[in-house]
Amino acid sequence: MIEVNLMKQSDLRDLNVKYDSKFALESGKLVFVIREDEELAGYSVVETKENDAHIKKYFCELKESIENLFCLKSIGSILTNFEITDIYDDTENINKFFRNDGKLDLSELFRSSCNDI
After folding, report:
1. How many angstroms from the chain centroid is the CA of residue 74?
2. Which residues are 103's β-sheet partners?
3. What are phi and psi of 30, to 5 degrees?
4. Which residue in 45, 79, 82, 94 has a CA-CA distance of 20 to 30 Å to 27?
5. What is the number of other CB atoms lying within 10 angstroms of the CB of residue 114?
6. Measuring CA to CA, how many Å separate 34 from each of 38, 45, 60, 63, 71?
7. What DSSP string runs through the chain?
8. Structural contact between residues 37 and 62, judged by C-beta atoms closer than 8 angstroms
9. How confident is the model over 67-117, as pLDDT tens digits?
10. Are 28 and 47 in contact (CB under 8 A)?
11. Do residues 61 and 41 make contact, with C-beta atoms less than 8 angstroms apart?
C-alpha cells in the first residue's frame, strides 16, 4: 500500500540517512514522505507562500507512472486542504509522468479518482 504523509519529527532521521540529505522542519516548507508497505519510497519538498506552493524536490522510487501520479494527487490534495490554489512544478521530475508547463492544472490532476491504482 502506498501512503503519502507530511513529515513528522520522527521521520527526520530516516530520511536524512536513507537519502543522504539534510531535511529539517522549517517555516514555509513542507516535506512529504512517500512510503510503500511502510518502507520509505521517496519524498517531496514544497515551499509555500500565501496561496502558492512550489514543488522544489520530488523523488520517488516507485517506477510506475500511475504510482507517481497517485503520490502527486495525494500531495495536491493535502495542499488544497491548506487552501493552496496554485501549485508550481520547479522540478523536471514531475513532467515525466504528469505533463505541465511549470504550473499544475489542478482540474486535470484531480480529473480521475485516486482509485487509478
Report:
1. 7
2. 88
3. -115, 135
4. 94
5. 11
6. 9, 11, 7, 13, 7
7. -EEEEE--GGGHHHHHHHTT-----BTTEEEEEEEETTEEEEEEEEEEETTEEEEEEEEE----HHHHHHHHHHHHHHHHHTT--EEEE-SSSGGGTS--SSEE-HHHHTSS-GGG-
8. no
9. 999 999 999 999 999 999 999 999 988 988 898 889 998 888 888 655 544
10. yes
11. yes
Please state, in angstroms and as integers, the Cα–Cα distance from residue 33 to each residue in 3, 7, 64, 68, 111, following that order. 8, 6, 18, 13, 24
Alpha carbons 46 and 86: distance in angstroms, whole number: 12
**Sole residue written with cell 503519502:** 4
C-alpha to C-alpha distance for 101 and 94, rounded to whole angstroms: 11
